[in-house]
């Protein structure tokens, strides 16, 4: 019986697919009135949970450019995107056919300089500027929560930078 159990586990591991790659952005700004750092959260179209802008790779575009494009399409923001990743997080995505896949999101920081009133997904999302601490409370993914914690601490000390040992990169 132990042999069958071990074989089943080995077969399961062999059939497990690697995570699918996505690119996302932590969009941030300083509040004009009080100088506090704010990050942008938006609702997902399918479940309504709080997320960051993210999407699939695009042919001919580098990771940070994809993150920047998704931030515009999903949240109507433009700005300066760091080329180096800030960190990573995993989440389960339910595809249109009902299959759930694990995604690994490479996160870039995007300092927002412009807010666009009309953007492609305006009607299907709710946007809210919150503190990094509030963002950490609202998102579901443990690794993304940790990215907001690290981001908040780095902003309190000065300017954020890419993590030496990115969260969730393993």
How would you portray this structure in words?
29% of the residues lie in helices and 32% in strands. By secondary structure, it is of the alpha+beta class. Strands 1, 2, 3, 4, 5, 6, 7 and 8 form an eight-stranded mixed β-sheet that branches. The longest helix is centred in the C-terminal third of the chain and has 16 residues, at 142-157.
Share of residues in strands: 25-35%
Shape, principal axes of CA atoms: globular
How many individual β-strands? 8
- Strand-pairing-aware structural class: alpha+beta
Residues in helix, %: 25-40%
The stretches of 5 or more residues where confidence is low (pLDDT under 50) are none
Mean pLDDT: 88
| Most strands sheet | 8 strands, mixed
Order of helices and strands: HEEEEHEEEEHH
Q: What is the number of helices?
A: 4
Gyration radius from CA atoms, angstroms: 18 Å
